Amino acid sequence: MTASSTDIPLNTAIDRHVHTKLCCHASGEMEEYVLAAIQQGLDGVIFLEHMEEGIRGAERTWLTEDDFDAYFSEGKRLQREYRKRISIGLGVECGYNPDCSQTLISRLARRDWDEIGISCHFVKPPGCKEHLNLFSRKEGTLARVRDFDPELLLDIYFETLLEAVTVLPGTQLCHLDGALRFLPEIRLTDKHFEKIDQLLIALKKNLMTLELNSSGIAIRGEQFPTRSILKMAISRNTPLVSSSDAHKPEEVGRYFNQLKEAVTRTSLNLAGR
After folding, report:
1. The dihedral of CA 2, 195, 172, 264: what is its sign?
2. pLDDT value for 140
3. N or C: less crowded end of the chain, CB within 10 Å?
């Protein structure tokens, strides 16, 4: 049965993925993001701060356990302060490293998360002792990525995500096709789309949602994931959620109208209208 615009709702009143300066590559205090969400007229905002484990050779772009202590302390204060104005969730974006799966599972189990986003930013190519950041815009990192076979790196990326959604207690898959986003010449192959379809099946099986990430609109003119993948997701009735992936307070809730338009347009096209 084909999907219709009513089969796949998208709640754009909640931004389910924002960061703060705690992750070392964003700016702004937690309270500034909350105030920005209120100004945008949102009903809720969910912080998804970065957790990584065992990453070698890369600049730290994630929180330590001490950072997470501070994050929860401030987050609980903000929940009390703004409880009558907006819902505030405290979540985590867990970057999956297959070599440290048990450690990540243990760390996730220590805290009561409102959302567990699953992602993969770093991969270790065969024969390489250090990890590559597939999401970096830095020229030095992009040059290193070009030294490897980009198709192979994407193979590893999608295989890692597939393992992650079956191993970790995730609730949401983040920026599905965001890897190598600063290498626009790279194209997904049929093999990659087969892996993506397997991922969508795994999401459904594990009761996870797929994030529509509006940061892609600023980077490449459309959300993560691309329209072709969104079509696949809607065809499989994959639950969708909206996020900005904000790294600055002013980015909270950005382009959400375009996210809703993309879902409606794709659903109508699938329905043959």
Report:
1. negative
2. 85
3. N
